């Protein structure tokens, strides 16, 4: 359809597949980073909650 030789067509297809594989790897890496970020944020939130409770106990303030 494009008027390409068989070799040019196959080269184009291989390059496209290669790019698609790289994009999939990058998407997977982004997903893993997202999951790690959410986990880290949850741990930070838990630590802040614990610090707030400790602060309230030390200074006798009511917990909100």
Q: Which SSEs are present, and which pair or pack?
A:
Layout: H1 6-59
In short:
By secondary structure, this protein is mainly α.
Please explain how this structure is put together.
- With 64 residues, the chain is mainly α.
- It is built from one helix and no strands.
- It has one helix at residues 6-59.
- The longest helix has 54 residues, at 6-59.
- The chain is rod-shaped and about 80 Å long.
- It starts with 5 loop residues before the first helix and ends in a 5-residue tail after the last helix.
Throw out a few tags for this protein.
single chain; 64 residues; mainly alpha; 1 helix
Detail the poorly predicted runs: none
Compute the average pLDDT.
Answer: 91
Cα end-to-end separation: 70 Å
Name the helix and strand elements from N-terminus to C-terminus, one letter apiece: H
């Amino acid at each position: 359809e494009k008027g390409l030789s068989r070799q040019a067509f196959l080269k184009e297809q291989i390059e496209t597949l290669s790019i698609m594989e790289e994009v999939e790897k990058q998407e997977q890496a982004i997903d893993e980073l997202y999951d790690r970020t959410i986990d880290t944020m949850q741990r930070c939130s838990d630590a802040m909650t614990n610090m707030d409770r400790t602060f309230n106990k030390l200074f006798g303030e009511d917990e909100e």
